[in-house]
Amino acid sequence: MAILKDSLEFSGGLGNLSAYKLPGMNKTIIRTKGGADKKKILKSPSFKLTRDNYTEFSACAKMGGCIRRSMLSLAPLADYNYTPMLNSLSKTIQLLDTESPRGKRNVYLTQHKHLLTGFSLNRNTIFESVVRHPLQFSLDRDHKHSFVQFPELMPGVNLMLSKQYPLFRFIVNLGCVCDMRFIGRGYHAGIIENSSVYTDWFHASQLFQAMHVSVHLKDKFIISDQMTLILSLGIQMGIQITDTVVNPVKYGGCGKIIGVA
């Protein structure tokens, strides 16, 4: 590693050199490009651990993507990139597979689905800080059905909404994800199925009457023992455009996973 001192200034690659800066340093760092040969990484026995780690990470990334897509309707409510957190959670579950050899460990979500409960799509405004009342819900695997019972909500008491937006609605999503298993020579992506229900828009300054919202998956969809039902819930803010059109506010709201089965 070398430090660039004169007036020559560049970043990125230049021939066999790579320039970059480190946090807390004003100088530019220069190093030569290097690393193991690609063919060596793919074939050499000394890189078997690297290959195993890469293979298992790809499974975790696939599972994280499956969970994210199973509740895609809530994605506009997130205030940070939560996909890496789902990948990390998938890795935690993968490490709990102590029977499979390294490089072939499975992500058995069905065996550890409780770890998903409470997963939040937000860091700045969490769902419990907005809806300050316990919600009742149920999940029925046999009938691929779920419901959420919303209580009466009073603005400023148990419903703490941003005064910036005049309207809000709830989104209830039911998704289904299959375990990520190593079969043959690789991992097989989990089956994804989901269904969402959007409530009507309500005025943020008025009393919200108690209501019941149910959601179910397609009748022809068959749930196996390797599948997990994921119930997620969000609240979305909106702005009135015309008498009949409301524009949902991107990142204006919050959501979380409230139950699994």
Detail the topology: elements first, then pairings.
Layout: E1 2-4, E2 12-14, E3 17-20, E4 28-32, H1 38-43, H2 48-70, H3 83-94, H4 127-130, E5 136-140, E6 145-150, E7 167-178, E8 181-183, E9 186-188, E10 192-198, E11 202-203, E12 211-216, E13 227-240, E14 246-260
Antiparallel strand pairs: 1-4, 2-3, 3-4, 5-6, 6-12, 7-10, 7-11, 7-13, 8-9, 13-14
Helix pairs in contact: 2-3
Question: Would you kindly provide a brief summary of this structure?
Answer:
The chain has 261 residues and is an alpha+beta fold.
Task: Describe the protein.
There is one protein chain. The protein is an alpha+beta fold. The chain contains four helices and 14 strands. The strands form four sheets. Strands 7, 10, 11, 13 and 14 form a five-stranded antiparallel β-sheet that branches. Strands 1-4-3-2 form a four-stranded antiparallel β-sheet, with no helix packed on it. A three-stranded antiparallel β-sheet has the order 5-6-12, with no helix packed on it. Helix 2 packs across helix 3 (about 85-95).
From the structure above, extract its key features:
261 residues; alpha+beta; 5-stranded antiparallel β-sheet; 4-stranded antiparallel β-sheet; 14 strands; globular
